[in-house]
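Q: Hi! First time doing this. I have a protein sequence and I read that you can turn it into a structure. Is that right? Here it is:
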Amino acid sequence: MRPTRLPRWIFGYGSLIWRPDFVYESHASACIDGWVRRFWQGSPDHRGVPGAPGRVVTLIACAGSRCWGRAYALPKAEQAQILAALDQREQAGYERLILPLKLADGRQVDGITWRASEQNPDFLGPADMDTMAAQVLASEGPSGTNSEYVLRLDQALETAGHPDPHVQGLAAAVRGLQTGAGYFKRL
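A: Yes, that's right. Below is the predicted 3D structure, encoded as structure tokens:
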């Protein structure tokens, strides 16, 4: 039996879009069909702490939907090392998933991504935007504030020409609460 060969492409739909932190040969805008990005995963290790997790994105299956992100081609000689580092980065409920990617130039390739399923202990599930925004503003972890994560993701998707309504909605709610908090602090 032949060993299964892993795809050389990584698909990022969250912080990997704006902070890949690994060596890659090339990158491109890419999308996956049948999935949406949602801030439904708890982050007790990067954008929050145990007992006070931040909210980060995961993929939720949704027929007829499309999720845009960034694909990175890994150098073959460093692929195992990079995947091990990404497995460590994407711990707290995330598992590897291989999906077909559509690159912006029309090519179709298989790619590896990480998804936190509803069955993991850090899955938070849906909530209204104001509730999520309040949690985001209150959360900070070793990788920084949760609000930075939300706002940088929103900016990266906008800059790439692929704004995401869910991300835009949460970013707007976070900005609104930040503005209100700043106003009350000045009084």
